[in-house]
Design goal:
The chain is built from 9 helices and no strands. It is mainly alpha-helical and about 300 residues long. It has 2 domains: about 150 residues; about 90 residues, no CATH class.
Length: about 300
């Protein structure tokens, strides 16, 4: 973040100076006796956390705000320096605009880091586009830093502004185009993830009612494990989907109490996990645990 800090320093100096999926019937699936322990239902109080889609939209809006402030700074500087000079009042205003743009850029880059940390392993296309957006924003920040340095030199250096101002306009157009692509891409990829998870085939067949119940609890345990760090990597999502498929097949095979409701809740929970909808998972998961039939 050195470029952000340097921009703040320059600004201060300048101021001073101036769905429902079908159960797939298993074929030739081995019957096993799982040894996973059966945890008791756990009541959890969770602070609201934005879903993957909500965090992505928050980033898109933050990008728009940062670009708006950068362009405002650029346009103000063009207008006020058109006569080849800049008064102390105009310089003070430019310093404020530069500081606001720097803060907005810092905020959006921080959100991008958070998104990459949470979902960086799940969709290469999304992260690649996000990385391009970040590059454009860093270029805008560098241009704003250059403007601050030029203005610090006084009116004699104003003729050097043209290149930096043109760079901001070009990079701003690029990042807005990328942001639009990102907004359109994410729902499609999340829908594909959800469909894949819901259509995962079972790989284990319960031999009796006790094992069927263990499959249900294994599904719960996998989800609870993922909720600990609010991150689901591809192997974890595969395990959640697989235990969900095994549990759904076992429900149908033994026609357990509340089969239809339990089956629907497994699908809902699997969808939430595939879409990164963390805060929606907890209440449904707790109700699911409490509704599990006894042995």
């Amino acid at each position: 973040m050195k470029f952000i800090l340097s921009l703040f320093v320059c600004a201060v100096v300048l101021a001073g100076c101036a769905v429902s999926a079908p159960v797939n019937e298993p074929t030739n699936i081995p019957t096993v006796t799982p040894t996973v322990s059966t945890p008791a239902p756990t009541q959890t109080t969770e602070v609201y956390a934005p879903s993957e889609e909500e965090l992505a939209e928050e980033i898109a809006q933050a990008v728009e705000q940062a670009v708006y402030l950068a362009e405002t700074t650029s346009q103000y500087t063009i207008a006020q320096s058109s006569d080849g000079s800049l008064s102390s009042e105009e310089a003070d205003q430019a310093a404020l605009l530069l500081a606001e743009a720097a803060a907005a850029l810092e905020d959006v880059l921080s959100l991008m880091e958070e998104f990459t940390s949470l979902y960086g392993e799940n969709a290469d296309e999304i992260i690649a586009t996000l990385s391009q957006m970040e590059d454009e924003l860093e270029a805008i920040s560098a241009s704003l830093d250059q403007i601050a340095a030029i203005l610090e030199q006084g009116s004699a250096a104003l003729e050097q502004l043209d290149q930096a101002l043109a760079e901001i306009e070009s990079r701003a157009a690029n990042v807005m185009d990328l942001t639009g692509q990102w907004r359109n891409m994410l729902p499609v990829i999340l829908a594909m993830n959800e469909e894949y998870a819901l259509n995962t085939l079972p790989d284990l067949e319960a031999a009796n009612r006790v094992q069927a119940l263990e499959f249900l609890r294994n599904f719960v345990q996998e989800l609870r494990g993922a909720l600990v760090d609010r991150k689901i990597n591809p192997p974890e999502m595969e395990s959640i989907s697989r235990w969900g498929a095994n549990a759904r097949a076992a429900l149908v095979k033994f026609n357990l109490d509340g089969t239809a409701d339990l089956d629907a809740r497994i699908q809902i929970l699997t969808s939430f996990a595939a879409r990164g909808q963390w805060s929606q998972i907890t209440p449904v998961l707790e109700a699911f645990e409490l509704s599990l039939p006894g042995r």
